[in-house]
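To illustrate the input format used throughout this study, we show a single complete record. The first block contains the structure-token representation of the backbone; no residue identities are included at this stage. The design step must infer an amino acid for every position from geometry alone.
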């Protein structure tokens, strides 16, 4: 014996709205959770979810009165809502059809002159060959970049700045060593040894 198939979400929506149409009355959620399983075969646990989906789509109205929340729906309201939805979808479909038509025309225009031919294939091959050659020449040019006069001039300027900075720090080291010798009466060799200063430490020429 085959197992009975459960209701789909859309079937539950249809049946719950049908319940409103038949009763033509106001209901609270708890009331619907009791009535819907008996009269429409909708499990009580799914009533709240199905009801909320109908409210979200504007197919069921709701209002809080005091501490209670009531729900209702009438065929005239549902018909109006569905008609408005159909009109919106129809407008959207028409817009998409216009866009498709416009895009098709643009594609057709863009393909003019690109029809397959021996001449076009030859030109495309020539273009590919030229691009490949261009990449090779750019790579070769990069290998000679170090010999570029502008690059060499910039390198010399950077070297001069670095040399000046190094000599400035050397001057600072000598000044600190002199201060330590006079302040603490320490020999210069001891200062060099403790601070790791090499014997040939001097200004750059």
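Output of the design step:
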């Amino acid at each position: 014996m085959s197992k009975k198939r459960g209701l789909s979400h859309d079937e539950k929506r249809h049946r719950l709205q049908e319940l409103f149409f038949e009763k033509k009355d106001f209901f609270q959620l708890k009331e619907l959770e009791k009535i819907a399983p008996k009269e429409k075969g909708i499990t009580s646990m799914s009533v709240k979810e199905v009801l909320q989906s109908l409210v979200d789509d504007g197919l069921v109205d709701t209002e809080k009165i005091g501490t209670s929340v009531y729900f209702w729906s009438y065929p005239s309201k549902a018909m109006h809502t569905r008609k408005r939805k159909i009109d919106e979808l129809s407008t959207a479909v028409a817009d998409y059809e216009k866009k498709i038509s416009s895009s098709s025309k643009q594609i057709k225009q863009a393909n003019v002159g690109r029809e397959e031919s021996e001449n076009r294939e030859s030109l495309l091959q020539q273009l590919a060959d030229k691009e490949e050659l261009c990449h090779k020449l750019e790579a070769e040019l990069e290998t000679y970049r170090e010999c570029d006069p502008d690059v060499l001039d910039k390198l010399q300027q950077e070297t001069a700045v670095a040399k000046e900075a190094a000599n400035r720090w050397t001057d600072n080291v000598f000044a600190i060593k002199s201060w330590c010798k006079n302040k603490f009466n320490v020999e210069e060799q001891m200062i060099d040894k403790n601070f790791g200063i090499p014997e040939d430490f001097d200004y750059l020429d």
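Structural context for interpreting the output: The first helix runs from residue 9 to 23. The first strand starts at residue 61 and ends at 65.
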